[in-house]
């Protein structure tokens, strides 16, 4: 739980222990599959978690990732300062449509969000 809170504080500075406990369903730890099931079975309709995550990187609602925000996240996560050259590489890597910006569609291609991995589904007959 403390590890999740630490990571969430990068994006949500004022998240409380109580909110993290609620997210984890009062469990001391949670697996990806449990978190996925919890989020999948929520009562929210028309909730797009990738779009919500994108808003963190686009605080001014421009429709594109703010590279200064990306730089600050890298620093807050302990990776140090990101140079302009490094930021350019991140941009080029993430820019799927090659328009020199990272929009929501580009962001969707980067975010590994989907079904939990089911090892039995990959077996061959």
Automatic annotation (TrEMBL):
<dbReference type="InterPro" id="IPR018247">
    <property type="entry name" value="EF_Hand_1_Ca_BS"/>
</dbReference>
<feature type="domain" description="EF-hand">
    <location>
        <begin position="45"/>
        <end position="80"/>
    </location>
</feature>
<feature type="domain" description="EF-hand">
    <location>
        <begin position="82"/>
        <end position="117"/>
    </location>
</feature>
<dbReference type="Pfam" id="PF13499">
    <property type="entry name" value="EF-hand_7"/>
</dbReference>
<dbReference type="InterPro" id="IPR002048">
    <property type="entry name" value="EF_hand_dom"/>
</dbReference>
<dbReference type="InterPro" id="IPR011992">
    <property type="entry name" value="EF-hand-dom_pair"/>
</dbReference>
<keyword id="KW-0106">Calcium</keyword>
<protein>
    <recommendedName>
        <fullName>EF-hand domain-containing protein</fullName>
    </recommendedName>
</protein>
